[in-house]
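Lab meeting, item 3. Inverse folding demo.
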């Protein structure tokens, strides 16, 4: 697989509280707290940010970033832990930061293809600094980045089991995700460029669950209208404020998967989290964001 660009040698990247952040937009805004969505290596924070976890509590790790023009040909055997997630990168720039700020040399403005990107995080020798000795190899992390047109959700490819697994808080993630989808652009945000629409894909949990035909979202709602044996139209309606998307999109059930096609790129990661919640909830119950609003 050809490399699009690369930070081709390891550089020192600071970490704080065992964390570093990967950002795919030039602005910062509050994301989800950690331990909501993800595994013990990579957590989703927002559509433009994820958090990586190190063994080192406070100090430096070795980091490199490789940007590819397509998915890697294989899963490397050289790493102890490997995880993936998707980010929205509207302006084609990626940065790695310590939790308290600060990027390693060459890691603060990496050119990547604009649009949806897939992040594959690798880690090895994640040894806590309390038990680390001078004889231990340095902790190393590598990020592979490539463009995608489908958001398939977080994925764990290999675990090193240095931390206990945590339950996915899908309802809590869906609340954040829906609020993010309906929010207007902030005053500090450049509007996204006109990039191709994308697809959200989720594996179905066995048999196809029943879907609610209407999802209330405050004074707005989403209507799911059946248009074929295995297809639905997803359309926003109502409300005094502008709709999150004034164009309908297609939900398709196909080969054991749900495909939400034709969605705005800036909504894709969040819609994936919303679908994770919708596919496991009772359709007769109000969605998580409406329950929280009523409390």
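The presenter then showed the designed sequence:
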């Amino acid at each position: 697989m050809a490399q699009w660009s690369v930070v081709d040698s390891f550089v020192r990247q600071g970490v704080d509280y065992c964390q570093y952040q990967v950002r795919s937009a030039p602005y910062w805004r509050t994301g989800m707290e950690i331990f909501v969505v993800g595994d013990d290596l990579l957590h989703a924070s927002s559509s433009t940010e994820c958090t990586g976890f190190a063994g080192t509590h406070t100090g430096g790790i070795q980091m490199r970033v490789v940007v590819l023009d397509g998915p890697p040909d294989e899963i490397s055997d050289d790493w102890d832990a490997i995880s993936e997630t998707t980010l929205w990168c509207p302006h084609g720039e990626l940065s790695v930061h310590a939790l308290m700020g600060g990027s390693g040399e060459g890691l603060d403005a990496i050119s990547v293809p604009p649009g949806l990107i897939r992040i594959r995080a690798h880690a090895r020798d994640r040894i806590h600094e309390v038990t680390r000795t001078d004889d231990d190899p340095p902790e190393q992390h590598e990020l592979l980045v490539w463009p995608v047109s489908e958001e398939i959700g977080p994925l764990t490819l290999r675990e090193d089991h240095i931390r206990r697994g945590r339950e996915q808080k899908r309802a809590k993630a869906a609340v954040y995700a829906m609020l993010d989808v309906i929010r207007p652009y902030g005053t500090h945000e450049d509007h996204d460029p006109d990039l191709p629409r994308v697809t959200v894909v989720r594996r179905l949990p066995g048999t196809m669950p029943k879907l609610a035909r209407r999802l209330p979202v405050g004074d707005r709602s989403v209507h799911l209208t059946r248009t074929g044996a295995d297809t639905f139209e997803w359309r926003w309606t109502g409300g005094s404020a502008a709709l999150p998307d004034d164009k309908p999109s297609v939900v398709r059930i196909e080969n054991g998967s749900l495909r939400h096609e034709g969605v705005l790129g800036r909504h894709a990661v969040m819609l994936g989290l919303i679908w994770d919640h919708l596919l496991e909830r009772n359709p007769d119950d109000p969605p998580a964001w409406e329950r929280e609003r009523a409390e």
